[in-house]
Amino acid sequence: VVDIRKLYAQTGMFTYDPGFMSTASCQSTITYIDGDKGELLYRGYPIEQLATSCDYLETCYLLLYGELPNPQQKTDFVNRVTNHTMVNEQMQFFLRGFRRDAHPMAVMTGLVGALSAFYHDSTDINNPEHREISAIRLIAKMPTLVAMAYKYSMGQPYMYPQNKLGYTSNFMRMMFATPCEEYEPNDVLVRAMDRIFILHADHEQNASTSTVRLCGSSGTNPFAAIAAGVACLWGPAHGGANEAALNMLEDIQKMGGVAKIGEFVSKVKDKNSGIKLMGFGHRVYKNYDPRAKLMRETCHEVLDTLGLGNDPLFKLAMALEKVALEDEYFVSRKLYPNVDFYSGIVQRAIGIPVSLFTAIFALARTVGWIAQLNEMIADPEYKIGRPRQLYVGATKRDVQPIDKR
Ligand code: ACO
A GO molecular function for this record (predicted)? Predict the structure, then answer.
């Protein structure tokens, strides 16, 4: 009998690396992370500078084309995106097939995948022109789709995009305006939402990006590959963490608020409880998530603007952050608040329902997924992704007749 595990170990033919802890799946020029220093660069530019000096569409241009746009390039890019903000009118009938209480990520997975059924002229992933137009379409239509999913869940009419508005103001208007009442975008809130988009735009080979690359490597169309990314992002260990973090805060609040933090943290430390402190920890950042620092700043600005500094949930979040930053369990494991811990508080303050948080993350990450997909396909050495496995099942055996089993 051959022990396959031993054979694999002896031949050393390939590595076994659960969770890809130390295996690079590709080469990339898009995003650089130094987890020990807490550094994040898009195309070489520090995230802090991009978040303070650029807007989201400039960041999209940078991720897609490798350089920040000059004024003419920015105008052209903004115009191209703006021209594509409408979705095919038939999409609303597709949307109507969903239950109104469906999770927005279930709806988004369907809607994004369905784009490939509407835009046949941009489904050939190996054709650079198709990739270019599908990229523009996806970036332009994601805010419209997220807002449609929200309005549908509320039973309200959809608000069509208004192209005289900027990308982020347009999104907020589609979310919050109604045919009865216009929405006047507030600069601080628009800037906060834009910053959420910038900070979530790319993050190298995370689970959803790796999913998009793997899916695209089969030659499927770009919309299908991005839909796979949306599906992967949904999980609470990834993009679903912002929703999970806010739900956790609400649970602690119901238990009794700040006074119950100690009790909750004890449960988290008990490995048998299966409870994690959502919005804390990161696979790569073992110092501090630089996006969290920026989002924390935005969080204060938004709450001050809205006069919500005394909001009990915000106070609870700050108290929890303090406890975790001082507790030996979290300090020794280098578990710091991540971007999702604060982005949930900001979005809730802006008026975004908790169940929509991950869909907004998907909107923002779409450009990163596309940039990564384009980089992979444009590489002449790209191959279909096909991980190996370490087989640990039964060795070869014979099927017994059913009466002898
Ligand atoms: N709460 C409590 N303990 C934690 C947490 C947490 N949030 N995160 C990790 N730990 C513990 C683990 O139990 C483990 O303890 P041990 O050494 O005693 O066994 C140790 O810290 C190391 O954790 P790993 O699970 O090995 O870390 P990994 O890198 O695999 O996980 C992850 C990273 C998935 C982000 C994890 O920290 C987590 O689940 N956090 C909560 C969910 C979350 O906020 N996700 C958002 C990620 S950011 C993003 O997607 C934008």
Answer: citrate synthase activity
Spot the catalytic one: 103, 130, 282, 289.
282
Nearest CA residue ID for atom 17, ligand 1: 333
Which single residue is written with the structure tokens 């796979």?
228
Who contacts 272 (Cβ-Cβ below 8 Å, separation ≥6)? none
Q: How far apart are CA 336 and CA 85, in angstroms?
A: 37
Residue nearest to atom 20 of ligand 1 (CA): 333
| DSSP string over 81-128 | HHHT-S--TTHHHHHHTS-TTS-HHHHHHHHHHHHHHH-GGG--TTSH
CB 323 within 8 Å of CB 265: yes
Q: Which of 270, 340, 398, 403 is catalytic?
A: 340
User: What is the distance between the alpha carbons of residues 279 and 252, in angstroms, rounded to a whole number?
Assistant: 14
pTM: 0.91
Are 354 and 246 in contact by the 8 Å Cβ rule? The answer is yes
Cα→Cα distances 102→39, 275, 347, 365, Å: 37, 26, 20, 22
3-class DSSP state of 391: coil
282 is catalytic: yes
Q: In this structure, how many other beta carbons lie within 10 angstroms of the beta carbon of residue 227?
A: 24
Q: What pLDDT score was predicted for residue 1?
A: 55
Rg (CA), the chain: 23
In degrees rounded to 5, what are phi and psi of residue 58? -65, -40
In three-state secondary structure terms, 289 is: coil
Q: What is the DSSP string of 35-95?
A: TTTTEEEETTEEHHHHHHH--HHHHHHHHHHSS---HHHHHHHHHHHHHT-S--TTHHHHH
Ligand 1 binding pocket, CB closer than 6 Å:
237-239, 241, 268, 276-283, 333, 335, 338-340
CA gap 183, 350 in Å, rounded: 13
Mean pLDDT by 10 residues, the chain (405 residues): 64 79 92 95 98 98 98 98 96 95 96 95 94 97 98 95 96 96 93 98 97 96 98 90 88 92 92 90 88 94 91 88 90 90 91 94 98 95 88 94 96
Our answer to whether residue 120 is catalytic in this structure is: no
Residue nearest to atom 28 of ligand 1 (CA): 283
